[in-house]
Amino acid sequence: MISKKVLDFLKALEKNNNRDWFNDNKKEFKTLETEVKEFYNAINQKLSIHDEIDKVKAFRIYRDVRFSKNKQPYKTNFGASFHRVKPRLRGGYYFHIQPNNQSFLATGFWAPEKEDLLRIRKEFEMDDQEIREIINNKAFKSIWGELEGEELKTAPKAFDKEHHAIDLIRKKQFVFTKKLTDKEIQSKELIDIIDQSFKAIRPYFNYMSDVLTTDLNGVSLIDG
Predict the structure, then answer these.
(1) Nearest Cα residue to 204 out of 143, 155, 152, 159
(2) Neighbouring C-beta atoms of residue 115, cutoff 10 Å
(3) In this model, does residue 224 exceed pLDDT 90?
């Protein structure tokens, strides 16, 4: 579980997002950061039972304000991503902690490389039945809801805008999110909620990993 102190600190930081306040409270921040990172490790241990995780990346609290209109120096959340072992396994997991019921889980493909994006679109163009069966499964949708992500307003170049799978083909991202309440964040069941949610995404990851490691004829791109 994540302690109430973590959420309280982030609420206070949101109201006092300046270096003087942060430096005055840096000792508390470091203590809470350690607590949160220990929870990340617990997630990783759970995931590693049924998946292969290459690395865990804990995002820093400090914002890069060089090219941003928002000059506030600190993020008002904690977050970490969990990367699967490439090239055989594709997709990733993300856990976001933010007070006022703004915490969430996310999973999928945030920024596919140009070649991967084309390969995914070509697969949907050829056959969209399997992916629809996966993402429309009742149990799957009860946890993850609808497929999300940025998309083009029209068809990508060289694709038919009248294609029956154009709703999938025009997407640039392929992600799912699951909101978490403050109550859930502080509950003893949190680690199991996260683990079971991430485990439920596996059919989607299996499908996408298979697509991204084979050509359109189903021939492996990674085996010698």
Answers:
(1) 143
(2) 9
(3) no
What predicted TM-score, i.e. pTM, was given to this entire model? 0.95
Which one, of 147, 157, 218, 200, lies nearest residue 177 by Cα?
147
94 touches 103 (CB < 8 A): no
pLDDT of 40-75, one tens digit each?
999 999 999 999 999 999 999 999 888 888 899 999
Q: Could you tell me if 176 and 202 are in contact, meaning their C-beta atoms sit under 8 angstroms apart?
A: no
List the Cα angle 116/145/218 in 5-degree steps.
30
In the prediction, which pLDDT does 65 show?
Answer: 83
- Report how far residue 87's alpha carbon sits from residue 209's, in angstroms, rounded to the nearest whole number: 9
Q: How far apart are CA 205 and CA 139, in angstroms?
A: 16
